[in-house]
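ARCHIVE CARD
CATEGORY: sequence design from structure
SOURCE FIELD: tokenized fold
FIELD CONTENT:
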């Protein structure tokens, strides 16, 4: 009997009952934790870009991809918060003078930075 393409490429089969199933294993992945940005992007891919999600998952590249997206998003978020706070003159002096006003302005800055990161990296 002629070997299948899977067997020609070095694959093996395992018999389960009356069926021969291919013995598939994913390549070893680094066990890195995925932060909130990476999880949000994974959920978006799973819901709106199923083919890309499944291709990354089955090739074993999903975890590394999500860790990379998470790192990029976190760096962009921190950079944007710093730049927006400086441009709007939200300083430690304001924090010492009027804490509630400082918190309100920083929350505003964080929300805007979060929306920018979502639109540029997460929901694309």
């Amino acid at each position: 009997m002629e070997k299948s393409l899977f067997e020609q490429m070095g694959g093996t089969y395992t018999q389960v009952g009356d069926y021969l199933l291919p013995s598939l294993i994913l390549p070893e992945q680094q066990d890195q934790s995925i932060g909130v940005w990476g999880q949000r992007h994974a959920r978006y891919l799973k819901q709106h870009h199923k083919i890309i999600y499944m291709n990354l998952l089955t090739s074993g590249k999903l975890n590394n991809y999500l860790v990379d997206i998470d790192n990029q998003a976190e760096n962009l978020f921190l950079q944007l918060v710093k730049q927006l706070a400086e441009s709007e003159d939200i300083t430690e002096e304001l924090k010492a003078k009027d804490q509630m006003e400082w918190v309100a302005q920083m929350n505003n800055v964080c929300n805007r930075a979060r929306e920018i990161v979502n639109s540029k990296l997460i929901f694309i």
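CARD ANNOTATION: The beta strands are 13-16, 19-22. The chain has a mean pLDDT of 90.
SHELF: design records, drawer C
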